[in-house]
Amino acid sequence: MVWFWVLVLFTANLKLGLAHIHGGEQPLAKINILQTTVALHESASISAEPVLLGLKGEDTEWITVNFVNPKPSLDDWVGVFSPAKFDPSACPPVNEQKKQLPYICSAPIKYKYANESSSSYAKTGTASLRFQLINQRADFSFALFSGGLSDPILVAISNPISFTNPKAPLYPRLAQGKSWNEMTVTWTSGYDIDEAVPFVEWGRKGDLQVRSPAGTLTFKQNSMCGSPASTVGWRDPGFIHTSFLKDLWPNFVYMYRMGHLLYNGSVVWSKTYLFKSSPYPGQNSLQRVVIFGDMGKAERDGSNEYSDYQPGSLNTTDQLIRDLDNIDIVFHIGDLTYSNGYISQWDQFTAQVEPIASTVPYMIASGNHERDWPNSGSFYDTPDSGGECGVPAETMFYYPAENKAKFWYSTDYGLFHFCIADSEHDWREGSEQYRFIEQCLASVDRHRQPWLIFSAHRVLGYSSNDWYSQEGAYEEPMGRDGLQKLWQKYKVDIAFYGHVHNYERSCPIYQNQCVNKEKNHYSGTVNGTIHVVVGGAGSHLSKFSQLIPYWSIYRDYDFGFVKLTAFNQSSLLFEYKKSRDGKVYDSFTISRDYKDVLACVHDGCEPTTLAS
């Protein structure tokens, strides 16, 4: 009976911790596309120009859409569909008994309300809209609807438009390989291996270039765990290629471009990109790391009504692009796209972060909006991934995990050692992941890599977010129960989390006790871990509790990210920057020597003997 009530209380706490996920809705989910009725009107029209895109090799183009509706209304809207042709024969029946097929069974990739650019549209029925399109391996058409998003009525369909080479290699994403001197390049194309051979041509800037082969992956509709990913949200993701550039010289600038060798002997090339190889582990030099979570994506053309869902995403992206010369590696710790089962949004996201991810390693972690789905093996039995159950994230990006379905891994960058946990799988003491975390923390040589960083998507440490405060523990249920022993034993400097869409920094803390009274400069022994929530990179913000806990040093209800700067083995600068202006709003420094890491602290002492 006691165990029954323990389970009831835990379930209640878990639901409190999950309640925030309903704070926003994927904009494409508002469209009831399966209920579309067709009422094509001979006096209604819609057209798009230019018809042929990418004539100069561009992978992004602005489109003008002109339309006329003889019966306009305020809730008319224009959807962008890709592929351009609607194919009702491929749709499953809406009504099994009547075998009734919907006219459209795939959601648009974006939409705008018809009156967005013209307040007189409801009177005149004439307007135009501007859309920004990216190359997504298929043609596009535009459809004019009345009836709003809940009861769409198809009024007119435009001419198709397309990029000159829809299959082109695009949107490279760099990531650290399994060794410090290996860089991986992942990209998307429309070429399967029976059409062309993928590879990367690369080398040190100014030297001879070599070619490295690439592997090719994709995923199919039957790989999705549920709707909308397996139904209206499905869109073919193309082919995902990854090449491994090995035996890099430290600190050198390399050039690279992706290629596809066609069977007629010609090569389809991407643009040329540059990256700087990683420093040797322990190298005593300037190294700069950016960390954030929950950025999502947004549309530069204002479509999809994203201002209410991920309003800070573009600001964060643009700040990072502006400061890219001063960034060496990026960690996006979960909730990447918020596609929530609308697969087209993964292309949109990789295009948005391309200026960053093509230049510096873009390391990711798994969040609830990537992985969670009932009865799919995720630790949380929620529908947050929209049926994706981790498949797109595991395929679209490379990360140096031993098993891609188990999203935990370690990686080194110069003076830093990172242990990236997967909060969507069991991390508790005795679990497979717990053993990995201990091994990862124990394996670092703190003389060479003094800065030890732990990260996970959900808050396994401390947060005074309102839903955590309601349950009283200020953490994910069972979050730090077993992990705090490891953080203390191995003297983790900073632990980072997303999930909560704000910024908060704790004091150095162990077992709910602040172990250092300083707020802006820490020196000497490592006797507690600083916990940082940095989930305010783009998605709608999360409220704090009214009560400020004693351990909370700084809280900010705004969009931002963290930058770590290691000057050498003894000096680290921490900065929290707001996305809207890039200015520093919270900071601290750590100064210490190797002997301070070795020093004995409570629950963090090596065994000794009296023997001589």
TrEMBL record:
<dbReference type="InterPro" id="IPR004843">
    <property type="entry name" value="Calcineurin-like_PHP"/>
</dbReference>
<dbReference type="GO" id="GO:0046872">
    <property type="term" value="F:metal ion binding"/>
</dbReference>
<dbReference type="Pfam" id="PF16656">
    <property type="entry name" value="Pur_ac_phosph_N"/>
</dbReference>
<keyword id="KW-0964">Secreted</keyword>
<dbReference type="Pfam" id="PF00149">
    <property type="entry name" value="Metallophos"/>
</dbReference>
<feature type="domain" description="Purple acid phosphatase C-terminal">
    <location>
        <begin position="528"/>
        <end position="587"/>
    </location>
</feature>
<dbReference type="GO" id="GO:0005576">
    <property type="term" value="C:extracellular region"/>
</dbReference>
<dbReference type="InterPro" id="IPR040974">
    <property type="entry name" value="Fn3_PAP"/>
</dbReference>
<protein>
    <recommendedName>
        <fullName>Purple acid phosphatase</fullName>
        <ecNumber>3.1.3.2</ecNumber>
    </recommendedName>
</protein>
<comment type="similarity">
    <text>Belongs to the metallophosphoesterase superfamily. Purple acid phosphatase family.</text>
</comment>
<keyword id="KW-0378">Hydrolase</keyword>
<feature type="signal peptide">
    <location>
        <begin position="1"/>
        <end position="19"/>
    </location>
</feature>
<dbReference type="Pfam" id="PF14008">
    <property type="entry name" value="Metallophos_C"/>
</dbReference>
<dbReference type="GO" id="GO:0003993">
    <property type="term" value="F:acid phosphatase activity"/>
</dbReference>
<feature type="domain" description="Calcineurin-like phosphoesterase">
    <location>
        <begin position="288"/>
        <end position="503"/>
    </location>
</feature>
<dbReference type="InterPro" id="IPR025733">
    <property type="entry name" value="PAPs_C"/>
</dbReference>
<keyword id="KW-0732">Signal</keyword>
<dbReference type="Pfam" id="PF17808">
    <property type="entry name" value="fn3_PAP"/>
</dbReference>
<feature type="domain" description="Purple acid phosphatase N-terminal">
    <location>
        <begin position="172"/>
        <end position="276"/>
    </location>
</feature>
<dbReference type="InterPro" id="IPR008963">
    <property type="entry name" value="Purple_acid_Pase-like_N"/>
</dbReference>
<dbReference type="InterPro" id="IPR029052">
    <property type="entry name" value="Metallo-depent_PP-like"/>
</dbReference>
<comment type="subunit">
    <text>Homodimer.</text>
</comment>
<dbReference type="InterPro" id="IPR041792">
    <property type="entry name" value="MPP_PAP"/>
</dbReference>
<keyword id="KW-0408">Iron</keyword>
<keyword id="KW-0325">Glycoprotein</keyword>
<keyword id="KW-0862">Zinc</keyword>
<feature type="domain" description="Purple acid phosphatase Fn3-like">
    <location>
        <begin position="46"/>
        <end position="165"/>
    </location>
</feature>
<dbReference type="InterPro" id="IPR015914">
    <property type="entry name" value="PAPs_N"/>
</dbReference>
